[in-house]
């Protein structure tokens, strides 16, 4: 009679224990490389977080590439120059300042013949000036604020004035500015409104 | 083992990171957005919606219009076209330039281009090529202009002229972007259907205006009332099967008027720096007339 097989007791080896194992260095390096690549990808595809860049464009340069041609006169530049130079006296909204400068809004000088308007910033203006039936008298005459502007810049500023705040007059071209500059030559004496009115409208 | 502080720190970092990403960063990016200048036009954009249209935004919101209509036009790219407006007098030179610039076009097709100007002579090109062509045409005595044309499926459907940008929603609170397009996109509905009468009839009985429309009618935005001394000018002109009983008329309530004023004010086509496009020379920029064109 065979002996019944006695199960041999399994030796207890104690509770399994987790031990410390160093993370492989290559995995760390790979993780950081992936992180870096992900951030660069994210930056590139969000236009380097530029708020002016929307999805079909990937960079500011691309947005700039597709700006429509301005057709000679740059009104954006005109506004920037106006706000920096002219607006000190004439106010950014073109309403002028009492005792300093007359308004531009609806002014017949601004929307009137360019040949007269261009002359004013080139050598200045003095004397009582009538705008929209109201006579403005100022202690100081207007200095030649536009004399140092390039033809393009002066055309941009004047065009901006003629097309802003409800003014709707055709833009001034830089060729017109160039022609007027040649006509007035070396004159340094500010214009008076009477003198300007004698200049032919075209 | 006490992991409390670690778990707290991990949860705190996770929540802070998402707060940075979803709240702080967007606020830094567009939180300080202001009116901006239109490109090529001395005007600012956007103009605040008129009061009635502002009320209409609340009606739009209350009626859940945004659950079926989106207000975002997407754009997949931008191309440059060259439009020749005048062939000048030197026909031979112009044909030479066109032959050189358009190598795949046959001679007879090029001669056809000179007939019936203005005509688009270069379509879907990139900027350097279009610039070169404009310069070459200028030197040959012809006049041409370069136009920037946004393209994409939404624009091909006629839902807009350019993509929607953050400025379009500057004065809207809340912004009703919408997420589903069960109905058409409404970002430019004021441009597509500028007629207030059309909008009223469409709200009252959508299928009168759009065949097979699945939009529910919004008849509770209208009043049926007895005709007074004279019929109201606002009364809807309904076909006999929908018309009210004799002596009665259907007039829009204040809510319907607001909603329609809001819909008509939805015109997001101003050329902006971040969404450039060329406005056709004849068309006035639309943002200056942000107000409803026909006030009911």
Beta content of chain B:
5-15%
Considering DSSP H and I runs of 4 or more, what fraction of the residues of chain A is helical?
Answer: 40-55%
What profile does the largest beta sheet of chain A have?
2 strands, antiparallel
Low-confidence stretches of chain B: 282-296
Strand order of the largest sheet of chain A: 1-2
Task: Indicate the overall shape of chain B.
Answer: flat
Quickly give the CATH architecture of the largest domain in chain B: Orthogonal Bundle
* Rg from Cα of chain B: 26 Å
Q: Which stretches of chain A are low in confidence, meaning pLDDT under 50 for 5 or more residues running?
A: none
The assigned CATH architecture of the largest domain in chain A is Orthogonal Bundle
Structural overview:
The complex is a heterodimer of chains A (202) and B (296). Chain A has helices at 25-45, 60-65, 75-90, 108-111, 114-123, 151-162, 174-184, 193-198; strands at residues 129-131, 134-136. Chain A is mainly alpha-helical and 202 residues long. Chain A has two domains: 25-65, no CATH class; 75-198, Orthogonal Bundle (Cytochrome Bc1 Complex, Chain D, domain 2). Chain B is of the alpha+beta class and 296 residues long. Chain B folds into two domains: 45-75 and 155-279, Cytochrome c-like domain (Cytochrome Bc1 Complex, Chain D, domain 2, Orthogonal Bundle), CATH 1.10.760; 77-151, Ribosomal Protein L30, Chain: A. In chain B, 35% of the residues lie in helices and 14% in strands. Chain B is built from ten helices and seven strands. In chain B, the strands form three sheets. In chain B, strands 4-3-5 form a three-stranded antiparallel beta sheet. Chain B is flat, with a radius of gyration of 26 Å. At the A-B interface, α3 of A face β3 and β5 of B.
């Amino acid at each position: 009679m065979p002996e019944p097989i006695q199960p041999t007791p399994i030796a207890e080896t104690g509770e399994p224990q987790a031990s410390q194992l160093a993370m492989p260095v290559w995995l760390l390096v790979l993780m950081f490389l992936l992180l870096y690549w992900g951030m660069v990808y994210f930056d590139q595809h969000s236009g380097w977080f530029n708020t002016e860049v929307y999805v079909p464009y990937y960079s500011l340069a691309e947005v700039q590439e597709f700006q429509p041609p301005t057709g000679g006169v740059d009104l954006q530049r005109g506004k920037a120059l106006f706000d920096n130079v002219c607006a000190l006296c004439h106010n950014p909204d073109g309403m002028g300042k009492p005792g300093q400068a007359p308004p531009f809004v609806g002014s017949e000088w601004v929307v009137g013949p360019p040949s007269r308007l261009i002359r004013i910033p080139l050598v200045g203006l003095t004397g009582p000036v009538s705008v929209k039936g109201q006579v403005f008298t100022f202690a100081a005459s207007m200095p030649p604020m536009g004399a140092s502007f390039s033809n393009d810049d002066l055309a941009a500023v004047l065009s901006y004035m003629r097309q802003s705040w409800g003014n709707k007059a055709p833009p001034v071209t830089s060729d017109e500015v160039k022609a007027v500059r040649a006509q007035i030559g070396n004159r340094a004496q500010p214009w008076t409104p009477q003198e300007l009115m004698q200049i032919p409208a075209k | 083992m006490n992991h409390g502080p670690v778990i707290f720190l991990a949860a705190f970092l996770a929540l802070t990171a998402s707060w940075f990403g979803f709240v702080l960063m967007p606020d830094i990016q567009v939180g300080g957005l202001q009116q901006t200048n239109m490109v090529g036009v001395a005007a600012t954009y956007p103009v605040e919606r008129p009061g009635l249209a502002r009320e209409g935004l609340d009606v739009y919101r209350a009626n859940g219009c945004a659950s079926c209509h989106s207000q975002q036009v997407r754009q997949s790219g931008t191309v440059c076209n060259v439009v020749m407006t005048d062939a000048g007098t030197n026909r031979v030179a112009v044909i030479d330039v066109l032959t050189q610039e358009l190598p795949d076009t046959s001679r007879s097709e090029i001669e056809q281009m000179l007939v019936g100007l203005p005509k688009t002579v270069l379509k879907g090109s990139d900027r350097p090529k279009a610039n070169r062509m404009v310069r070459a045409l200028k030197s040959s005595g012809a006049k041409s202009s370069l136009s920037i044309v946004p393209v994409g499926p939404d624009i091909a459907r006629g839902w807009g002229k350019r993509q929607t940008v953050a400025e379009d929603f500057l004065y809207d609170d809340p912004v009703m972007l919408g997420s589903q397009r069960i109905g058409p996109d409404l970002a430019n509905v004021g441009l597509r259907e500028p007629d207030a009468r059309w909008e009223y009839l469409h709200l009252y009985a959508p299928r009168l205006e759009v065949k097979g429309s699945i939009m529910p009618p919004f008849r509770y935005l209208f009043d049926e009332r007895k005709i007074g001394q004279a019929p109201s000018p606002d009364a809807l002109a309904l076909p006999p099967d929908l018309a009210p009983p004799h002596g009665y008329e259907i007039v829009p309530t204040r809510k319907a008027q607001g909603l329609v004023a809001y819909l008509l004010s939805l015109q997001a086509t101003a050329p902006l720096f971040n969404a450039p496009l060329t406005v056709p020379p004849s068309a006035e920029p639309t943002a200056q007339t942000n107000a409803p064109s026909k006030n009911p």
